Structures are given as structure tokens and as C-alpha cells.
Amino acid sequence: MKNSLLILTLLVCPMITFSQNCIDLDPYDELYLNDVSSDDVTYPIGDPFITTGDISYVKPSSGNFYQFINGDSLLYVGDIDIDVSASNCTNKSLTFRSSYTLGIVIDGDTVMTQMNPNAYYNSGTWEFQMISFTTIKVTGDFDVVHIISSTNYLFDVCLECLSLDNTGDSHCMSLSSYHDNYLYEVSLDDVTYPVGDPFIVHGYIHYVKPSSGNMYQYIMGDSLIYIGDISIDVSTAPCTSKSLTFSSVYTEGLVVDGDTVFSAINPPTYYNGGSWELNYTAPDNYHIIGDFDVVHLISQTNFLYNVCLACESVTANTNELEAERFDVEVYPNPTNGEFYIQNPSEDYLTYQIYNSSGQLVKSGDINGTQVFIDLSDKPKGMYLIRIMNNDDFHISRKLIRN
């Protein structure tokens, strides 16, 4: 075991540097916050009042009181939006800490409330994780995170772009957002953390518990120590050919997309799975390249580390191709309550409109080139419009009701 630990300290995953920025409150002060809180004319609802790079703090409604700044921590009473829609990244990772959150709504989708404090939520295009009591992580394609609270502290707000390209650059697993107590909960609780669901996510690399009874024990850097089995799921990566490398000290069996490469014997130095190939270099290094989705590791006590993924070739992004055709317009915006949704494609669409608390206030069909909608009877504030086609592809648009 000592030799294995020595190996772990010497081998470092060659991390690629992605664009990341964290909120900086140095340019702002309490007098400015007081003006923002009390003046909806100079500082309108729905407009950003604090911005660093692609991260903006937005006041979603009247009556919120943004009180004071301590370092890069914001103390406030009420609600706030973290808007990252300015980022052109299709796969974002937003992490933040929030001390007294009562609810979270992401792009109109309510992921947690005081009565239902979900630790994990998958919308299809993004994932929400409560890493600890105060630490939240949202990964995927999303725009606005709405935080509902009474008195709250918001701090350590950082945004990272995780998109892969076809340059061959590696994107490596990071465990910095996770801790041993979380692993313990994942191991014992199959209700909150169901079998088959990812429990560690970094970009397109997902660690999944494939069955009950596995014990994920502790983290050492970006190494995971566990007893039992684990799956590495890279199915969400937009690649026709992937390159996955990882090191695993005590693997007793390996299955790729249901194909058993080895079991209870020494790993082969080479294996051809048809659409993918595996190369093994003793003592612990694996390289799988080709078209595959899930790598399942069978073991007793094991160390998993140096997990890196690269695209050898990239699939045309279906969502991006769809979005070119699915380019709707909402106008006028801001509005006094009356507005139109313009549909240049003339495809059949449906819409759902949510208020800033995530409540559905109106829904309907768009059967022609445009539809007229009246929210004059609704309170002033920010609303989120989700527009969907028959293939369940959806886009979101913000609407300000003045």
C-alpha cells in the first residue's frame, strides 16, 4: 500500500487550462448596493448590478436588499440571480457557496426548495449538485440560476468553460469540489444517490455507482480510493472518437459498453472492441480510444486517478444545429405585459412562462409565425420563457415585465 501511495503522489494528470473567472466585488461598495436595492429606475429589475467577466448578479424583483460586502462575499436579504448567459460556452461549470438558501430555480426549472432540498437534479441539458450544505455546482448548458432566500451570504462564485474540441487536448477529472463525507453519503444512501446516477461530475467525465454496496472512501488530490465497483461514463461528450486515459491500481475486471475486456486475470496489453481499442501499460495505465460510452471497473480496494478525456473527432452538435433553425424572438422586451413570440421557422412550438420563483404562470402553443401573450395581470419582475419543439429541444428567453 505504501508503494501505491507513493505512485499517487508522483503521477499528476496533465490538466488543460480552461477559461475560468470568479466574481470580484472590489469595484463595489455598500452605498452602491443601497442605491441598487432602493432604486428600480436607475437600476431596473432584470439588469445586472454586479458583473465580473461572464458572471452577473441580477436583481429579479423589487424589495430585495443587498446590504454589504465582505471580501468577495455578498450579504443580502431576499432573492438574487446569477446570470451566466453572456458566456458563449455550451458546457459551463458554475460553483458557488450560499449559506442560507431556501430554493434554487435554474432556467425556470425548480431544483430545490426548503421542503424538498434535492442534492442532485438532472434536467437533460444541465446537472445540479449540492456538494455540501453550502456548496452548489451546476454543470452543462444553462443561463440563469435564481436563488431564493431570506438573509443570505453568496460567495466563492466561479465559472469555468468545460467544452471539448477536436484538438486532442485533455480534460481531466477534478475532485476539488468533493469531500469524504459526501462520498460516505453516496455509498450508503441509494435513495438520494440512486444506483446508475452520476455522483461525481467534471465536464463530460461522470463517475457513476453501478450497484449497491460499493464504498467510496476518500479523496487524495484527484485520486479516488474506493472498495467495489465504479463506472466512468463519458456518453455526453460530443465526440465520434474519444480518447480516455486513466490509472487504476487494483482493477480485477474491466467492461466497456458491455464488452468484458478481462475478469480476474491480468489486463491484456491490447484489446479490439470493434468501434474502440484498449491499450494497457503496466502497472496501472489504461488508454481507450474510439466510439464508446461507459467503462466499468471491477475491484476490491482500488485507487482511480489521472482520468482524462479528449476528443479525437467531434460530432456536429445537434443542439447547435437545431438552434440555428430554432431562432425565436421575444418582443418587446422589456414589456408592460403585452408581447409576442416570433417563430420564423413556422414549426409547431409550445411555450411555458415561469416567474422568478419558478412557478408556471402561463403556457400554450405557437401554431403559426407568432403568438400574442398578455401578462398585464402578473406582477412586475423577471420571467423566464421556455420554448420547446416536438423533439423536446428547448431554449430559454428572459422577459422583463415593467
Rounded to the nearest angstrom, the distance between the terminal CA atoms is 65 Å
Q: What is the average of the pLDDT values? A: 84
Radius of gyration: 23 Å
Q: Count every beta strand, where a strand is a DSSP E run of 2 or more residues.
A: 35
Tertiary shape:
globular
Largest sheet: 8 strands, antiparallel
For the record, the CATH architecture of the largest domain stands as Sandwich
Q: Which fold name fills CATH's third level, the topology of the largest domain?
A: Jelly Rolls
Low-confidence stretches: 1-19, 315-325
Structural class: mainly beta
The CATH class of the largest domain turns out to be: Mainly Beta
Beta-strand fraction estimate:
over 45%
- Total separate domains: 3
**Estimated helix fraction:** under 10%
Number of helices: 4
Can you walk through the features of this model?
The chain has 402 residues and is mainly beta. It has three domains: 19-161, Jelly Rolls; 171-314, Sandwich (Jelly Rolls), CATH 2.60.120; 318-401, Immunoglobulin-like. Helix content is 9%, strand content 50%. Strands 1, 4, 5, 7, 10, 11, 12 and 14 form an eight-stranded antiparallel sheet that branches. Strand 8 (101-106) and strand 9 form a beta hairpin. The radius of gyration is 23 Å and the shape is globular. The termini are far apart. Residues 1-19 and 315-325 have low confidence and may be disordered.
Secondary structure layout plus pairing:
Elements: H1 2-10, E1 20-22, H2 30-38, E2 48-52, E3 55-58, E4 65-70, E5 73-77, E6 80-83, E7 92-98, E8 101-106, E9 109-113, E10 120-122, E11 126-130, E12 135-140, E13 144-149, E14 151-161, E15 171-172, H3 180-188, E16 198-202, E17 205-208, E18 215-220, E19 223-227, E20 230-233, E21 239-248, E22 251-256, E23 259-263, E24 270-272, E25 276-281, E26 285-290, E27 294-299, E28 301-314, H4 318-325, E29 329-331, E30 338-342, E31 349-354, E32 360-366, E33 370-374, E34 381-388, E35 394-401
Antiparallel strand pairs: 1-14, 2-3, 3-6, 4-5, 5-14, 6-13, 7-12, 7-14, 8-9, 8-13, 10-11, 11-12, 15-28, 16-17, 17-20, 18-19, 19-28, 20-27, 21-26, 21-28, 22-23, 22-27, 24-25, 25-26, 29-30, 30-33, 31-32, 31-34, 34-35
